[in-house]
Amino acid sequence: MKGKSAPTFNPVGPWLATPDEIDDVSNLDMTLDVDEKRYQSGSTSNIVFGPLFLVHYISQFLALEPGDLINTGTPAGVGLGQKPPTYLHGGETMTLSLSRLGKQTQSVVSPTHSGR
Fold first, then answer.
1. 8 A C-beta contact, residue 76 and residue 68
2. Cα separation values, 64 from 11, 15, 35, 54, Å
């Protein structure tokens, strides 16, 4: 969670699915493309710890409220594991796809330095 929970790290929406809309959340295909190049492809069927375990474990350290999101791991293909390592930089476009839920597209912007 620590590496995925900073401000702006969790874009969601504009819609959320309700439990009656997806029969089996443990079998959804996921992909991540950067500038139309596929970097990650996986499935929720490969998750190491299931939702019940995660909620139980995390609840021991912080109070979860209805609507809170829990960020989990990521499929193989992260930039650090590329040869040579590849990192995001300003001007790229990322497209995330999750079966039954659709796609999200984000533009990568270069960080600004406030001089602090």
1. no
2. 19, 21, 35, 11
**pLDDT for 2:** 65
What are the CA-CA distances from residue 63 to residues 56, 66, 91, 93 (Å)? 11, 10, 37, 34
Q: Where are the domains of the chain?
A: 23-107
- Rounded distance between C-alpha atoms, residue 9 and residue 88, angstroms: 14
Q: What is the pTM assigned to this prediction?
A: 0.74
For residues 81 and 6, which has the higher predicted lDDT (pLDDT)?
81
Q: With contact defined as beta carbons under 8 Å apart, do 77 and 39 qualify?
A: yes
Tens digits of per-residue pLDDT, 41-57?
A: 999 898 888 888 999 99
- Identity of residue 51: P
At the second CATH level, the architecture of 23-107 is Alpha-Beta Complex (3.90)
